[in-house]
Amino acid sequence: MLINDQIRCVDFPCADALHENYWIPSVEVDPGSIRLILISETSAHQPADNYYAGGAALFARTTLQAFREAGVGISNFDDLLSMGIYLTTAVKCGKSGYAVPTHTIHNCSSILEREIALFPSVKAYLLMGDVAIKAFNAIAKRQGEPRVIPAGSTYKIRGGEFTYLGRRVFPSYLQAGPSFGIEKSKQRMIAQDIANALRVAMVGN
Questions:
Q1: What is 20-201's CATH number?
Q2: What residue ranges do the domains of the chain occupy?
Q3: Which of 121, 126, 119, 127 is nearest to 203 (CA)?
Q4: In this predicted model, what pLDDT tens digit does every residue of 56-77 receive, in sequence order?
Q5: Which of 13, 26, 132, 134 could form a disulfide with 39 if both were Cys (CB 3.0 to 4.6 A apart)?
Q6: What residue ranges in 47-166 does DSSP mark as E strands?
C-alpha cells in the first residue's frame, strides 16, 4: 500500500500553513506489519529532509540517531519499516512560524486520523512533541474518547500510562530537526521513551 495514494488534503483550509511544503509519506507499507507509529510535528521545510527521503535527510539523521540511542541497530528507514515501525507527521504542511496554531493542528488531525486507521495491528504510538500530542487528543475527541494525554509539561507526564482504543500511547519530545538543537537530557529521555514503546509494540512479534 502506498500511503499517499490513500490519504490527502483536498482543500488546504489552513491559511497559516506553508502549503508548498505539503507532504504525506510516499512509501510502500504492508499495513498489517506495522506495530508502532511515531508521529512528529510538521513536514520539513525542504522536501529532501522529510522521512523516507534518503539517508542524508535531516529527519533521517536525527530520528535514526534517536533509535540507535534507544539500542536499536538500524541503518535506514527501511530497517525501521521491516521492524514494523512507521513514521509520519501530525501536520502535513510546513509551519510558517515557531508555533503551529491550534486550529491548524485540529484541521490536519483529520488526515492523521485517516492515516493511523490504515494500520490495524498497531500496538503503540509515540507522540513526539506538543503538536503530535494535541493532534492525537483532537482525534480522540472526535472518536468520543476521553483526552489521551493530560495537560502538563512533557517532563511530568511522559512516565504515565496512557491508552487510546486499547493501545499504549507514549508522549515524548520532538526528535525531528537539527540534532544540535536537542538538549542532551532530552535526547536521553527520547531514547528512553522509544525503548519503552518498542517493548510494548514488539510483544508477541
A1: 3.40.470.10
A2: 20-201
A3: 121
A4: 788 888 899 999 999 999 888 8
A5: 132
A6: 85-91, 94-95, 124-128, 162-164
